[in-house]
Structure formats: C-alpha cells, structure tokens
Design goal:
This is Transposase. Helix content is about 90%, strand content about 0%. By secondary structure, it is mostly helical.
Length: about 70
C-alpha cells in the first residue's frame, strides 16, 4: 500500500543523504591527501610542478598555486 511505502520514505531519504555525505567526505579526504602529498614533494624535492602534478594526480595549475602559497 501507498501508506506503508510512504512511511519508509523518511528512512530512505536519510539513508540516501548519509550515503551522499559519506561519498563527499571520502572525496574531500582524498583531495586533502593529494594536496598533502604534493606539498611534501614541493618541499622535499626539486621536481617541477608538471612532474609533481603527473605523479600525484592533481592539475599542474593547482600544484603551481600550492608552490606559490608555500613561498608566502
């Protein structure tokens, strides 16, 4: 019946929202790890931005921006 299904909607919406939130959190964590790795490579090596970007998986422009931020 429709009323039985309607009773389950809030729980379903909650579960879907939780799944989306967890996925977003994982993506943010992944992005943070990539940035931390790039920053470490910038400070510990003499690799150019394009090489770091290629190895880490970030856009070269983002690596350049991280290097500029690091310089202050």
């Amino acid at each position: 019946m429709l009323t039985e299904r309607a009773k389950k909607w809030p729980q379903r919406w909650l579960e879907e929202g939780l799944e989306k939130g967890l996925a977003k959190g994982r993506e943010q964590g992944r992005e943070s790890a990539l940035i931390a790795t790039a920053l470490s490579m910038i400070s510990r090596t003499e690799m150019d931005d394009a090489t770091i970007a290629d190895l880490v998986g970030l856009p070269a422009e983002q690596v350049r921006a991280l290097r500029e931020q690091r310089r202050g």
